[in-house]
Amino acid sequence: MSQAAVPTCLLAALAAVVVLVPGGSAASTCSADELAVYRVFLDTHWSRDTFPKQYPEWRPPAGWSKMVGRTHDASYWLFREGEMASAGLQAFAEKGHSDSLEAADHEGVYDEFTAPPVPRGVGRTVADFFLDGNHSLVSVAVRVVPSPDWFIGVDSLDLCRGNHWIDSIAIEVDPMDAGTDNGFTFTAPNWPSEPKEPVARITSKRPSHPANSFYYPKLDKLPSIATLTFVKERVYHLSAELSRNASRGRDAVHAVVDGNDISNDLSPSLGASLGGGLGGSVFDSTESAIRRTSKARRSKKGSRQAKHCQVSEWSPWSACSVSCGVGDATRSRRVLEHPRRGGTPCPALQERRWCGGHSECPQNFFNW
């Protein structure tokens, strides 16, 4: 599919009623064996004809920041109407700074993606991203430029309906107020909200102040300012990818148990052990290789207290092993105290999950 155009059949999706349920839908049952690739098109319609009031022509002219997006599970949200904006969202909505958003290391986030800015009020930008059956929600935010703290986006859109991935969906989005600045106009000076207010939708009548740049009291609804269209590009199946990656090398894991060095060869490849249906998209590459090798030591007068294995917290997930296509990511932990005298053996010290890379993909790489 060319980036230059969206199929006309997608226009029918605009007539669909889209309900975004905070936290996602409990009905999502797409398989964790699947990795879906989607493309998102942002088409913006902010012009002087549609929004004549205080339309910014220069320093800066009407435009849009880069798109910031996340795919995730129900434990995470980028923003949520009715909730307070995070510090990262505040910095993004007010200044366009996305560092704190992009650096967020949240366990529920699967993929982070961006798209280039749209330098004018009317234009288009495009990005690709990945989801799996355990992380089927997507959230997107784009700042209105210039503005006090206004942005557009979607919160926790579930691209898995029933047991299949949606082919395409288009959503008309409204401007949102982050609730961190009191400015009414596009070019208002900085005026921090004290106290801050929850994230709220901007309508033709709210905020109800004549100075508000989006205040059109004679309209029932604001004209469309932007449309987000999500199109399924491809679905990978883990079982097929495993067969393609069967030639990968074997990992070696060394477990030290009760003072004895035990060396075990593993062959997880991309996931030789599925851990009971992937165990939440995570491949356990070491647990099956760690075995008890010592017996309890008992003195003539009775048994001594066992020492159980203690391990550190998991490290963050590594970057995906590929920059384009399907690869894997790992995380590890280390032994803090080895088991002794029949204590509980150490658990898995490394986990692997599959992931997708799209940062260096050529145009139309994921097209069928």
From TrEMBL:
Gene Ontology CC annotations of this record: extracellular matrix
Localization, UniProt: Secreted, Extracellular space, Extracellular matrix
Keywords attached to this entry: Cell adhesion, Disulfide bond, Extracellular matrix, Glycoprotein, Metal-binding, Secreted, Signal
Protein name: Spondin-2-like isoform X1
Lineage, broadest ranks: Eukaryota, Metazoa, Ecdysozoa, Arthropoda, Hexapoda
Domain of life per record: Eukaryota
Every Spondin domain range: 26-210
One Gene Ontology MF term: metal ion binding
Pfam families: Spond_N, TSP1_spondin
Signal peptide interval: 1-26
Stretches the record annotates as Disordered: 186-205
Primary location recorded for the protein, binned into one broad class: secreted
Protein's GO biological process: cell adhesion
